[in-house]
């Protein structure tokens, strides 16, 4: 029997299915319409911006780094443009090793280039462009351009390079720039958004000296360029741009010709010298020997040069003027004498009998002069540098009173100079010793330790900058000025100049008559005392004090004999001075390491500095050679007019780049009267033991 279909039921089911499908389609269309409304209306601006960003790219424009000038407008740091061959490891289609090997067939790539590249690669991320060769010639650029298609991920870029025209001269002051490393990038993450944005595209940053401390002023403001890009990311056309603002010009108070004179006078000897204007604190010369060539660091220093600098026994990377610490030796005595007057421990006329030694307990503290100096008052104690006088004075004052009085001069404190890395030095006290040592027996201060402090030995360790600042304070009638290297910052966009105002950071409470006693004795040192030979015949009057700091302890039954000692165990020669004595315009402190008596090896350099600064005189060639060897006190030969000494020209430029055009002063003698211009961890150098048994003047 045939089953008949229920047509009505089938139609009902069909209508239900059609209705359900229609509802589903309607809902889908409604959802699509709602999505379109959401995207086209509510997210219109956001999506338009994303589309625009996909079509365009923002490229940072790195600004030209600012210049560094000396007080007379001589350029100390500048920039020049050169081509570099760069590799982006993440974009290579071949292995890095094979790519470098193939590139070497087109452009000369040395083993040094490869080592430097590997070092940069370790400090960088794979997507960064790294230079494998710098300073390409036009011929090399053309050779690579012809075969560019063979090397995806390799390209030629035009970059600005930093250049230090005078090489090693004043390198510790100027500093250098180098590629930003991972640690510095991490530090930058803590900067505010504005500062981070300003360093977009920047790959180099100041690492040392003025380059580091004035990084923000020298860097400038980063510009931006908006370019239209293709789907492949290639730039099609420039849409808009905002130019970069060059960095400011930083001008130093330093006289680079004076700096060169001092560095030349040191020759191959190690040491440091700081000269400054006591009235303002402006640094005139800031010498640390030996020096180094900052151009080595600009595009990445190679392993050999780094090892030579870092492992050298002479420590050329150590800024001895800022970070090296030394026993002050007898240069400490004038400050001790002033403290004695202020505390009533001595009067100017009070005298002691000096037999040539001072017994304390069963220990004999010897004077440098066998048989002693006889009857010694305060004037003679400074002029003749009598150790016994200051052994007794230190015993009478005690370590804590000495610490309290010496701190007024800034010993054992940061001076606040405007470059980073300054060492604090050490001005001992009983409290310091309790903090410095763990064992109770080491924390105790022994009375015998006090005696050697009086002659600038023992635990005393100061920087040459601190001694120079203290000397300038005495020369400036007790006003202590903050030392500063930078005298002016010039904004290139506005042409406005911001001069660095002198800043007084302290004032001695010493009575004027007591200061006069000390200054009279310091003048006596250079007229009839331990440095008289160096200043014989000078056309001006100056004050000074020699010092000879012990490096190792000599046993009581032994006598110091430099010829029988290792060269690095010999005494340091120190000297502090100012001139003219009546109205000082320059003060200095200095050390020449391991050469002996300060009057014979340090004071002669100071004499030539004063002759240059006050009279415009330059040593004769004969005199220069003699001073370098420690064989001259009074100038020999006929001094030359400093204005007639040719300043090194383009031939003195380093191979790293050309010398930028710079104005050269007519003569250094004009600098004092017309100073306005035209346009690592601290390393303590070997010090004496806590209780030395011998001291020298």
Automatic annotation (TrEMBL):
Free-text remark on how the cofactor is bound: Binds one Zn(2+) ion per subunit.
Known EC number: 3.4.16.4
Membrane found in the keyword field: yes
Active site per database record: 330 (acyl-ester intermediate)
GO cellular component terms listed in the entry, alphabetical order: plasma membrane
Transmembrane segment boundaries: 18-38
Topology in the lipid bilayer: Single-pass membrane protein
Root EC class: hydrolase
Cofactor(s) required, per the database record: Zn(2+)
Metabolic or biological pathway: Cell wall biogenesis; peptidoglycan biosynthesis
Domain Penicillin-binding protein dimerisation: 61-238
Compartments (UniProt record): Cell inner membrane; Cell membrane; Membrane
MF terms in GO: penicillin binding; peptidoglycan L,D-transpeptidase activity; serine-type D-Ala-D-Ala carboxypeptidase activity; zinc ion binding
Residues annotated to bind Zn(2+): 354, 367, 373, 386
Reaction it catalyzes: Preferential cleavage: (Ac)2-L-Lys-D-Ala-|-D-Ala. Also transpeptidation of peptidyl-alanyl moieties that are N-acyl substituents of D-alanine
Biological process terms in GO annotation: cell wall organization; peptidoglycan biosynthetic process; proteolysis; regulation of cell shape
Keywords: Carboxypeptidase, Cell inner membrane, Cell membrane, Cell shape, Cell wall biogenesis/degradation, Hydrolase, Membrane, Metal-binding, Peptidoglycan synthesis, Protease, Transmembrane, Transmembrane helix, Zinc
Penicillin-binding protein transpeptidase domain mapped to chain residues: 271-610
Family listed: Belongs to the transpeptidase family. MrdA subfamily.
Function: Catalyzes cross-linking of the peptidoglycan cell wall.
PANTHER family xref list: PEPTIDOGLYCAN D,D-TRANSPEPTIDASE, PEPTIDOGLYCAN D,D-TRANSPEPTIDASE MRDA
Protein name per the record: Peptidoglycan D,D-transpeptidase MrdA
Encoding gene, per UniProt annotation: mrdA
């Amino acid at each position: 029997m045939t089953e008949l279909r229920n047509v009505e039921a089938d139609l009902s089911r069909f209508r239900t299915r059609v209705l359900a499908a229609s509802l589903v389609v309607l809902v889908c269309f409604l959802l699509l319409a709602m999505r379109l409304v959401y995207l086209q209306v509510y997210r219109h601006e956001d999506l338009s911006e994303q589309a625009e960003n996909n079509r365009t790219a923002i490229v940072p424009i790195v600004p030209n780094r600012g210049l560094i000038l000396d007080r007379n407008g001589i350029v100390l740091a500048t920039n020049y443009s050169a081509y570099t061959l760069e590799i982006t490891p993440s974009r290579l289609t071949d292995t890095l090793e094979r790519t470098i090997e193939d590139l070497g067939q087109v452009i000369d790539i040395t083993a040094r280039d490869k080592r430097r590249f590997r070092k940069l690669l370790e400090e960088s991320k794979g997507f960064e462009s790294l230079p494998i060769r710098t300073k390409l010639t036009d011929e090399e650029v053309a050779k690579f351009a012809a075969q560019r298609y063979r090397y995806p991920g390799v390209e030629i870029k035009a970059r600005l390079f930093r250049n230090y025209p005078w090489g090693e001269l004043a390198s510790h002051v100027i500093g250098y720039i180098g590629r930003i490393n991972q640690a510095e990038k991490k530090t930058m993450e803590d900067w505010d958004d504005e500062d981070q944005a300003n360093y977009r595209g920047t790959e180099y940053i100041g690492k040392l000296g003025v380059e580091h401390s004035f990084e923000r002023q020298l860097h400038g403001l980063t510009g931006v360029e908006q370019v239209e890009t293709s789907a492949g990311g290639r730039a099609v056309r420039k849409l808009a741009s905002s130019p970069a603002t060059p960095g400011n010009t930083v001008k130093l108070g330093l006289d680079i010709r004076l700096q060169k004179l001092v560095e030349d006078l040191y020759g191959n000897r190690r040491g440091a010298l700081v000269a400054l204007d006591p009235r303002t604190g402006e640094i005139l010369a800031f010498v640390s020997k030996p020096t180094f060539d900052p151009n080595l660091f600009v595009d990445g220093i190679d392993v050999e040069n780094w090892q030579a600098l870092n492992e050298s026994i002479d420590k050329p990377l150590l800024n001895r003027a800022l970070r090296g610490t030394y026993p002050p030796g007898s240069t400490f005595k004038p400050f001790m004498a002033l403290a004695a007057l202020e505390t009533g421990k001595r009067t100017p006329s009070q005298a002691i009998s000096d037999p040539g030694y001072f017994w304390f307990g069963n220990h004999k503290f010897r004077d440098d002069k066998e048989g002693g100096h006889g009857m010694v008052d305060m004037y003679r104690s400074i002029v003749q540098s009598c150790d016994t006088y200051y052994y007794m004075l230190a015993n009478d004052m005690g370590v804590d009173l000495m610490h309290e009085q010496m701190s007024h001069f800034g010993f054992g404190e940061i001076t606040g100079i405007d470059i980073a890395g300054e060492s604090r030095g050490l001005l001992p006290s009983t409290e310091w010793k309790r903090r410095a040592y763990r064992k109770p027996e080491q924390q105790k201060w022994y009375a015998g330790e006090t005696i050697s402090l009086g002659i600038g030995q023992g635990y005393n360790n100061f920087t040459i900058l601190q001694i120079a600042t203290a000397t300038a304070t005495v020369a400036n009638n007790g006003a202590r000025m903050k030392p500063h290297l930078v005298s002016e910052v010039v904004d290139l966009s506005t042409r406005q100049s911001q001069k660095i105002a002198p800043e007084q950071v302290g004032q001695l409470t010493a009575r004027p008559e007591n200061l006069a006693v000390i200054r009279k004795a310091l003048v006596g040192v250079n007229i009839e005392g331990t440095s008289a030979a160096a200043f014989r015949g000078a056309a001006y009057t100056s004050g000074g004090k020699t010092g000879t700091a012990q490096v190792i302890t000599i046993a009581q039954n032994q006598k110091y004999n430099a010829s029988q000692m290792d060269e690095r165990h010999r005494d340091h020669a120190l000297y502090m001075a100012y001139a003219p004595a009546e109205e000082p315009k320059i003060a200095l402190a200095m050390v020449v390491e391991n050469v002996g008596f300060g009057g014979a090896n340090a004071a002669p350099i100071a004499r030539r500095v004063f002759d240059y600064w006050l009279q415009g005189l330059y040593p004769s060639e004969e005199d220069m050679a003699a001073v370098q060897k420690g064989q001259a006190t009074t100038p020999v030969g006929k001094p030359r007019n400093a204005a007639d000494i040719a300043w090194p020209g383009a031939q003195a430029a380093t191979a790293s780049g050309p010398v930028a055009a710079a104005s050269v002063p007519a003569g250094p003698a004009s600098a004092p009267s017309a100073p306005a211009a035209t346009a690592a961890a601290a390393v303590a150098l070997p010090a004496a033991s806590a209780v030395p048994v011998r001291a020298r003047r």
